[in-house]
Automatic annotation (TrEMBL):
<keyword id="KW-0732">Signal</keyword>
<feature type="compositionally biased region" description="Basic and acidic residues">
    <location>
        <begin position="347"/>
        <end position="371"/>
    </location>
</feature>
<dbReference type="InterPro" id="IPR002347">
    <property type="entry name" value="SDR_fam"/>
</dbReference>
<feature type="region of interest" description="Disordered">
    <location>
        <begin position="314"/>
        <end position="385"/>
    </location>
</feature>
<keyword id="KW-0560">Oxidoreductase</keyword>
<keyword id="KW-0521">NADP</keyword>
<protein>
    <recommendedName>
        <fullName>NADP-retinol dehydrogenase</fullName>
        <ecNumber>1.1.1.300</ecNumber>
    </recommendedName>
</protein>
<keyword id="KW-0443">Lipid metabolism</keyword>
<comment type="similarity">
    <text>Belongs to the short-chain dehydrogenases/reductases (SDR) family.</text>
</comment>
<feature type="signal peptide">
    <location>
        <begin position="1"/>
        <end position="19"/>
    </location>
</feature>
<dbReference type="Pfam" id="PF00106">
    <property type="entry name" value="adh_short"/>
</dbReference>
<comment type="pathway">
    <text>Cofactor metabolism; retinol metabolism.</text>
</comment>
<dbReference type="InterPro" id="IPR036291">
    <property type="entry name" value="NAD(P)-bd_dom_sf"/>
</dbReference>
<dbReference type="GO" id="GO:0052650">
    <property type="term" value="F:all-trans-retinol dehydrogenase (NADP+) activity"/>
</dbReference>
């Protein structure tokens, strides 16, 4: 018994000591870009904390609007970013996504103030809220995470088009795969599960991005959905259990800076336009880690689809969203299993990637310094994390 306990303790200690390396290994890419941000205008929702705050910090070479529901929290984040980055163009404006009046007031104020908008990041989100409704009577997850951002984007769309090339990045989540659009009970009045309510709203984010991309074709405005990874943030604040787990496993969870990299990539990387409407997630293990050689071999031998550092899903799941039935009622859901093989979009994407040789560039980030590539890149450098 003592031996087992001893072994377990040693194993756990080993796990915790190596946790930062394990985390960095799986954290994914880092957005490297030489894109000129001065003169650009960015709006980020919910940027007073978490992933949004780090995204704002990284984009602070532009004029950044922190759109948040608590102006005091926003000001405190903005003054921290201003002090860190010496950029005084970090501005705070009130935006409560759970109230369409507040969204309209924000949009009105912004449109009066700014003649351009180049990047809109729909970042704010709530998770696992007890059942509640927004000021307009929408279930909170759907209302804040999707409908609020839907309205905001709609209201700012003309300004985005006038400022093209422009981008809309919407924070979704990997859990959108468990989501359904329950048209017969959108507000969760008949059945409510707070976990699923979050998944449904994140699926709505992915579908919104896809449809928006279609409607914006040819306008110069492109749009992307993002899964930032599992990130150490305040998102779990409504669940005692998750708060506990987040604390326990915090060394293994991404930092908010690491979590911001996928949003930054979608906002800045050059050449992403053909991928408008896609869902991005980080999958590729770090290239320079001790395991990368082994994993690299494994990838190339076991899978013909060696992914780039940041993978844009073909959207097959979203494209394959199908009408289903739940208790005799119509629902829109995604297939549980991802279909095998490549579809046409996958092939086109892979071809484009190969053409640009971005993967080769990413494998050798030093090229950037030599001026060989000015493209935005996602590469993983453990020492930078
Ligand atoms: N963390 C993860 O592991 C993870 C994983 C997948 C996806 N995501 C997504 O990433 C995004 C950012 O999450 P995070 O981890 O940074 O969470 P976070 O630290 O809790 O930040 C969420 C932000 O949204 C704001 N917000 C909430 N309700 C709002 C409302 N009604 N109006 C305006 N702003 C509101 C919050 O403001 P207050 O501070 O005032 O509450 C906060 O600034 C979310 O969309 C989330 O779904 C996160």
């Amino acid at each position: 018994m003592l031996v087992v306990l001893g072994l377990l303790t040693s194993f756990l200690s080993f796990l915790y000591v190596t946790a930062p390396s394990i985390r960095k290994f799986f954290a994914g890419g880092v957005c490297r870009t030489n894109v000129q941000l001065s003169g650009k205008v960015v709006v980020i929702t919910g940027a007073n904390t978490g992933i949004g705050k780090e995204t704002a910090r990284e984009l602070s070479r532009a004029r950044v609007y922190i759109a948040c529901r608590d102006v005091l929290k926003g000001e405190s984040a903005a003054s921290e970013i201003r002090a860190d980055t010496k950029n005084s163009q970090v501005l705070v404006r009130k935006l409560d996504l759970s109230d369409t009046k507040s969204i309209r007031a924000f949009a009105e104020g912004f449109l009066a103030e700014e003649k351009q908008l180049h990047i809109l990041i729909n970042n704010a989100g709530v998770m696992l809220c007890p059942y509640s409704k927004t000021a307009d009577g929408f279930e909170t997850h759907l209302g804040v995470n999707h409908l609020g951002h839907f309205l905001l984007t709609r209201l700012l769309l003309e300004r985005l088009k006038e400022s093209a090339p422009a981008r809309v990045v919407t924070l979704s989540s990997v859990v959108h795969h468990a989501g359904k659009i329950r048209f017969h009970d959108l507000q969760g009045e008949k059945y409510y599960n707070r976990g699923f309510a979050y998944c449904h709203s994140k699926l709505a984010n992915v579908l919104f991005t896809r449809e928006l991309a279609k409607r914006l074709k040819g306008t110069g405005v492109t749009t992307y959905a993002v899964h930032p990874g599992i990130v150490r943030s305040e998102l779990v604040r409504h669940s005692f259990l998750l708060c506990l787990l987040w604390r326990l496993f915090s060394p293994f969870l991404k930092t908010t800076w690491e979590g911001a990299q996928t949003s930054l990539h979608c906002a800045l990387a050059e050449g992403l336009e053909p991928l408008s409407g896609k869902y991005f997630r980080v999958t590729q293990p770090e290239q320079h880690s001790p395991f990368s050689a082994i994993l690299g071999k494994w990838h190339s031998s076991a899978s013909p689809r060696r992914p780039p550092l940041l993978v844009a899903e073909s959207g097959k799941r979203a494209a394959g969203a199908a009408w289903g039935h739940e208790g005799g009622k119509k629902t829109l859901q995604l297939p549980r299993k991802q279909a095998k093989g490549m579809d046409e979009e996958d092939k086109a994407f892979k071809q484009k990637q190969e053409e640009r040789k971005t993967f080769q560039e990413l494998k050798n980030p030093r090229q950037e310094g030599k001026g060989k590539s000015k493209t935005a890149q996602m590469s993983h450098e453990a020492k930078n994390l």
